[in-house]
Each structure stands twice: as structure tokens, then as C-alpha cells.
Amino acid sequence: xxxxxxxxxxxxxxxxxxxxxxxxxxxxxxxxxxxxxxxxxxxxxxxxxxxxxxxxxxxxxxxxxxxxxxxxxxxxxxxxxxxxxxxxxxxxxxxxxxxxxxxxxxxxxxxxxxxxxxxxxxxxxxxxxxxxxxxxxxxxxxxxxxxxxxxxxxxxxxxxxxxxxxxxxxxxxxxxxxxxxxxxxxxxxxxxxxxxxxxxxxxxxxxxxxxxxxxxxxxxxxxxxxxxxxxxxxxxxxxxxxxxxxxxxxxxxxxxxxxxxxxxxxxxxxxxxxxxxxxxxxxxxxxxxxxxxxxxxxxxxxxxxxxxxxxxxxxxxxxxxxxxxxxxxxxxxxxxxxxxxxxxxxxxxxxxxxxxxxxxxxxxxxxxxxxxxxxxxxxxxxxxxxxxxxxxxxxxxxxxxxxxxxxxxxxxxxxxxxxxxxxxxxxxxxxxxxxxxxxxxxxxxxxxxxxxxxxxxxxxxxxxxxxxxxxxxxxxxxxxxxxxxxxxxxxxxxxxxxxxxxxxxxxxxxxxxxxxxxxxxxxxxxxxxxxxxxxxxxxxxxxxxxxxxxxxxxxxxxxxxxxxxxxxxxxxxxxxxxxxxxxxxxxxxxxxxxxxxxxxxxxxxxxxxxxxxxxxxxxxxxxxxxxxxxxxxxxxxxxxxxxxxxxxxxxxxxxxxxxxxxxxxxxxxxxxxxxxxxxxxxxxxxxxxxxxxxxxxxxxxxxxxxxxxxxxxxxxxxxxxxxxxxxxxxxxxxxxxxxxxxxxxxxxxxxxxxxxxxxxxxxxxxxxxxxxxxxxxxxxxxxxxxxxxxxxxxxxxxxxxxxxxxxxxxxxxxxxxxxxxxxxxxxxxxxxxxxxxxxxxxxxxxxxxxxxxxxxxxxxxxxxxxxxxxxxxxxxxxxxxxxxxxx
Length: 887
Fold this sequence. Notes:
Layout: H1 4-14, E1 24-28, E2 31-39, E3 44-51, E4 56-62, E5 71-76, E6 82-85, E7 93-102, E8 105-108, E9 112-115, E10 125-127, E11 138-141, E12 149-152, E13 158-162, E14 167-170, E15 185-191, E16 194-202, E17 210-216, E18 224-231, E19 245-247, E20 255-258, E21 264-267, E22 275-276, E23 304-309, E24 328-332, H2 334-340, E25 346-349, E26 357-359, H3 363-367, E27 384-386, E28 396-401, E29 412-417, E30 427-428, E31 435-442, E32 449-455, E33 463-468, E34 476-480, E35 492-495, E36 498-506, E37 509-513, E38 523-525, E39 535-539, E40 549-553, E41 557-561, E42 579-586, E43 589-598, E44 609-612, E45 620-621, E46 644-649, E47 652-656, E48 671-673, E49 681-682, E50 698-701, E51 709-713, E52 725-729, E53 737-738, H4 742-747, E54 757-760, E55 768-771, E56 776-779, E57 787-789, E58 810-816, E59 827-834, E60 837-843, E61 851-852, E62 866-868, E63 876-880, E64 882-886
Antiparallel strand pairs: 1-2, 2-3, 3-6, 4-5, 4-7, 7-8, 7-9, 10-64, 11-12, 12-13, 13-14, 15-16, 16-17, 17-18, 19-20, 20-21, 21-22, 23-24, 24-25, 25-26, 27-28, 28-29, 29-30, 31-32, 32-33, 33-34, 35-36, 36-37, 37-38, 39-40, 40-41, 42-43, 43-44, 44-45, 46-47, 47-48, 48-49, 50-51, 51-52, 52-53, ...
């Protein structure tokens, strides 16, 4: 019979269910020293405890457990209790001893082993491949240097084209956690005389605060910035209008900006300082207060639309004069025109912007009516470009359209303009409701090439791109539904060095054609590197599942990712959601997946909850739905960003709706089913705290006990004055009990859904973690009692609760496969702030200490959804620019 002592020693040495190796101890001279070793990305971290008195310490290392032949690598003071072996070779396995000296002699700790480089290094991050996944409002070519091209997105920053490798390189990943709102890029401008200089204006929403100008002298590898005196709307309506930021080709230190709310602005010192161009207008829209100007435009005013210099910049032979361009034009949207009391939609200056004269536009634009358009429009000018003619015979090409876009509706027209006279319409929208968007020209005179986008064309073989080789006298349709993407052709660009090479944007990325003049044009997506899916939720399965993770996205619904390097093809198909909200799997049978979302208005007009029993190969709608998800076309079903589900076992789940759905049948109370959705029953949970923003219960199923499920009401919002509450159920969600632990009652505070989280340790029953935006709370007994961790904290320490901190101490937490040698049964990942530094951190000792696993070059403007891998130790998936993972 084995002795209890030996059985316990065997358990500690071998580990149970992923438990980490225990300390390795040695005694002598009345002293005991216990050593642990943990492999990190760049070193092996040693730590030891000392019971007794020592006068000296030495660290030894070997490549086997045999102490013979070991080498001393450090001699330390008697008070030292840790050492980092930075000389350990990545991937190599080492054994360590601490030799300690006492009054009686020298002795050794037990041997502790670890492997170096077992965690991905901080700087090694890659995107999970999807390709595009969102709207690209603008493309910007450098006019005088080949293949210098940038793309701006509305939510995922900006990119530079790598022509050698045919992919896009992200250039705003270094934007920090306080810079997330600047990832909505409203405009990019390039210095025509210096291809290394690039300017970028970031600011997602007009009502979100003033914008920021970023400046780079190395094509976006690094940036400096200037805070601007006006807001931007990189994700507002009309975000493809422009480019709003323009560099004077004759005097590149002169910049103009067509702002949405504050009129026209000018800088004479490369963007360092700015002044309103008051010769045009002094009006500034109000953006805050009880009834701001912008409210009457849905908080998406358009303002001044664009700036055009009357200077030719041909691809070769251009010489900057060194004197500011005197003749320039600006286009004015109807909203600013009306508020500012301006009389024209187009203005011209001949003195560098000091004074302005209105330019009459074609009368047809403001008088046209038909059966579909019964009243004349107030036009927008989404794009206004100049040809390459260096003489007085130059022409401008101007698009007029009814709506702002994306996918601006018509009626719409393209005209040319010689500075005095307008042509007859060169092109009219393909039908009244179809607009015209992007326009680009190459060359001059009668052989001017024009590429023109048709917008708001959505179905079948609808036209997308028109092309003319004779200045608009005749046209061919080189892009239409079936051979390229359609709908949001709000920007079109001709390569300034190859007129047969044309690009256009759309709602999912960028398309390219290299043979625009061919009888059979062929389009290719160029989206490698652009990743801008807005991610709502991520969930990782246990080891042995046939997929890597599950995701719920805006726009493309639920996706099952089986390969990190290829676009997923496993999804609910014609049942797919417009937006995917919650998704989860049965831990003991991960082939069972359940998902909820919003109807997509296309192939799916009614289904809001689905399940699969074969890892997503096929899907079915739940037989019935809870009362908050009634049948009917485009029912929201309480499926705001907050809606989520927890799966305890196949066919057994709890569904928590959002309170921000416009669905009066939903008060946020979760429902459960034990029969795969055939019936649904309300839990006994009270409605979650409700405020002016969406709220819902966070749900999490215990991965070791299918009868246990947890619910967390975070308190609704940071201004709710209602502390959060945690509930546990031991009967599969039928009844919940509120935790009365005083640690939660006094310390949980109140927070919004998206700044708080709930997670479980998948390897230990009853091991629960939650965040309240500021700290992490940990329970080892299913939530009956809690410990508040203080190894993270919000910044500043004395922040105003209503306004919130600058940096949140703890917003997301996730647990996954433990690192070799860790002292806790799971790796714990935190999105938060440790030691005053915001980032994503890992703890291998249950939150006692943290190591940052990202770096300043990889911050993505902040991190949203989070999930830890259960197969690769040290790997985490996160929502930043699309979904990223470390490797």
C-alpha cells in the first residue's frame, strides 16, 4: 500500500488536470529553500522561499536533471528571492538549483525545471485572417512616386500598401488605449514633394470630442500628433466625402482642412497650428449642450466637403513653386450652407483663401424632379478632382449627388468644369435612386481617362464602375455585380502611373483591376492585411475541438474559425445574422454550438437563435424563442451588443437579452431551456440595472459542472449609483442566488456592460473571475466568497466615478491553458492597467503578479473581446483591429 505522503508527492510532481509543478525544496543546516522556475517569452524566471537563515545564495543550471556538470550562473546576496535567466536559449529545457550557505555548511534546493521561450514574445502578433470585413472610405495615391498608396478605414485605422508583397501594412497599431477614437480615420494627405511625409486626421464621431492630426516623416512607421480645434467623423455618415485634408503642392507647409462643423481651416506650419479661414465663413456649429446644431443632422453633419488646388501635379516632371497656390476651390454641404448663411455650394478663391466668390453650379442639379424625386435636391459634392493639364485648358470633374453615403443615393450627375463654364452632364446615375460616388482622372484633354463609381446599386448585375477613355464622351461599364463588389463605390482611384490600373472601395474592402481597357475586365480583391471586423464576442473551445474559436461579429454574424490563416467558411449560411451577439459551446461536447444575433434583412428575416450539433457544418433555428425574441421580420430580439448566452451542456443553455433593444417585451431577465429551445422559462433573476445605455447580465457556464451557471449584473453604467451583483445557480439556471459576500457588497461598484466581464477557470469547478472596470475579483467556491485583487488599478487613482478614469484597471478577463511551471491551474489574462501601464497582461499565479504581453507597437487603440486558448499555452485572442493573436 502506498503511503499518503508518497501519493501526495506524486500528485505534486506529475500534476492533476493541468495543475502546475509545485515548489522543489531542499533542506540543510536548519534551513529550507523551495525553488520554482517559469519559462517566459524572453527568459526563465526563478523564485524561491527561504525558511531559516542563510549567508549566501548561488544559482546553478544544467540541461538535464543531473546535478553533475551543472554550471553556476549567478551569485547573489542572501536577501534576494528571485532571478531571471536571460541567457536561456529559446525552446531549450533547463534545470535549476539554488545553493544556499548556512552556518552549518552549503546545501541545495530541489531541482526546478522550465523551458525558455514557451510564451509568445510581446511583439509577435498576427491577425486571424478574414480579409477586409469592413468599409474602406478612402484610398490615397502619392501623385509623383509609384506604388505609394494608403487606405483609411472607419473603425480600424489606416494602412500602407506593400507593393512588393501585395499586402497592406497597418500603420496605426501603435495608437494607445486612450487613442481608440482616433482609429476612425476621416482623412489622409500626402506631401507631393516628399513621399515619406503623411498626414492623418483621426476622430470617429463628431460628438466624441475634437480630432487629432497625426504627422509622420517615415510613411507611418512612427507618428507625432497635434490636437485639432474641431471634431472629425471618421465613422459618421458621409465619411467617404473628400479628402478633407489637402497639402498645397506648391507650398507643402500649407494645409487646408474641410471640417464638418467649424468651416474651413488652414495651417501654414505643416499642421502645428491652425486658424479658421474666416474669409469663407466664421460660423461654427455647436456640438454640445441641450440642443446642439449637429443634432438636427443626426450628429453627422457634413460641413465643408473638400478642397481642390488649381495646380496640376503630373506623375513626372512636377516642380513645386515654393509659393502658396492662389487659386483653390471648396465645396459646401447643404447643412453648413444653411447654418452659415452661405449662398453657394461651391466657392473659389484667387488669393490663397483670403477671400471667396461663389460659383454657380448647373441648374439641373438643383431643379431636377421626376416621379421618384418629386422635389429638387440640395446636392452634395462627394468628389471634385482636377486633371493633369498644366495649361489654362485644364478641367475639373465634379460629382453631384443627393445623399451623403456610404452608398450615397441619387439622383446624381458628373460634370466637367473649366473654371467658368460647365459641360452638359457627362454621366447620370444609372437610375434615380442610384448615386455617383468616387471619381478619378488621368491625363488631360480629349483623351482624359475617367473612372466613376455608381453607388447605392445593390442587386444582381447592377453597375459599379464606369470608365471613359475620352473625357466622358463615351463610357464602358468595367465593374458590375458578379465581377466585383457593388453598393458602396464611394471612392475610385486610377493609378497615377498606370491608367489601366483602377481601384475601388466597398463595404468589405478594396477591389483592383489591372486591365481596365480590356474587353473582359477582371477584378481582384486586395484585402490581405486589412482586418477591420468589429468583434462582439469570442469564445474558445476545449482541447480536441475541431475549430480554434467562435466569434460573433458586426455585419457578418457568427463565424466558426477552424484555421487562423484562412477566411472562415463555417457559419450559419442563410440563417446567418446581420450581427452576431452571443455564442458558446458545450464544454463536454464542443461540436454543439449555440449562437444568437440580429436578423440580417436579406436571407434571414426572422431567425435570431441557432444551434449546430456538428461544429458548425450545419445549423438549425431553435424550435421556439423566449418572449423577448418574438417572431417577425427584423426583430431586434434584445440582441444589442450586450446580449449573450451560456451553454451548460448540449441543449441546455441560458439566454440573456439586452435592455437596449427597442423591444418592449424585454426587461433583461434571462431565460433558460433544457430541451434545446423547444421551451423557454424565465429565470428568477431580477431585471439587470437599466440606464440610458444598454445593459444585460454577463453569463458564464461552469466548465466542470454542467449544473452550475453564473450571472453578473455590472450595475448598468458608471453613473448608475447601483452596485453590481453576482448570482450563482446550481440547478442549470432555473434558480439563482445572490452572493452576499461583503467583498462584493463594498467593492464591486457600478460599471457598464462592456467595461466589465465574467469568466471561469475551465479547469477547476467553481473558480470564477469578474472585473468591474477597476479591479479583478476572484472566487474559488462558485461565488459564495470573493477576494478583491489590487495588483491592477485605474488611472488616475482619484478619478471621478461619473466621468470615469483615463485608463481602466480591469475591463476584461479570460483564462486558458496554463504555462509550464506556473503555480496556478490556468493562465489568467487581463485587459487593464498594471503599474500605471495599460495593456494586456498574463498572470501565472492567480493574479498575484502580471507580465505585459503586448508592447507599445501593438495597442490597437484599446482591446475589446478576449478569449484564451486552451491548446497553446500563452496564446490569447483579442478584438483590436479585427481579431489578433500572439504567436
